[in-house]
Specification:
Elements (H helix, E strand, L loop, with lengths): L25 H10 L3 E8 L10 E4 L2 E12 L4 E9 L8 E6 L2 E8 L12
Antiparallel strand pairs: 1-4, 1-6, 2-3, 2-5, 3-4, 5-6
């Protein structure tokens, strides 16, 4: 999260209490709620053996729809994972996108977060 992205775009709305009263950034949050989001943070399964570094463009066919922020290998999923901010017009789980990695388009699929095996959750 930075001045470029809001808590709402990052999917952290559960940590915002608008009933709390005045706080730094409250007006910006209310404005975003009123105007709607342009982009949202999603998780991607990326068809590659190398990790997304961050900053890679994300496409739907030839249309730029977002940018990756980071990537890593998911040991539970046995796949390369990436986080990306994607236009809210294209947020369906299962939607196939592509990530441009060193001028090669890699297939990427939006997946629901979080990717945690039930056996790894606290009881």
């Amino acid at each position: 999260i930075s001045s470029d992205f809001t808590l709402l775009e990052a999917g952290l709305e559960e940590f915002i209490d608008l009933e709390k009263g005045d706080f730094v950034g409250r007006d910006a949050v209310l404005q975003t709620v009123g105007n709607g989001l342009d982009q949202k943070l999603v998780m991607l399964h990326v068809d590659t053996d190398v990790d997304v570094q961050g900053g890679e463009p994300v496409y739907l066919f030839d249309k730029l729809v977002g940018h990756a922020t980071s990537g890593c290998y998911g040991y539970d999923t046995q796949k390369s994972l990436a986080m990306a901010y994607v236009s809210t017009l294209f947020l369906s789980a299962g939607l196939e996108l592509s990530v441009d990695m060193q001028s090669v388009r890699r297939k990427a699929t939006i997946v629901n977060m979080p990717l945690v095996k039930p056996s790894h959750m606290r009881k």
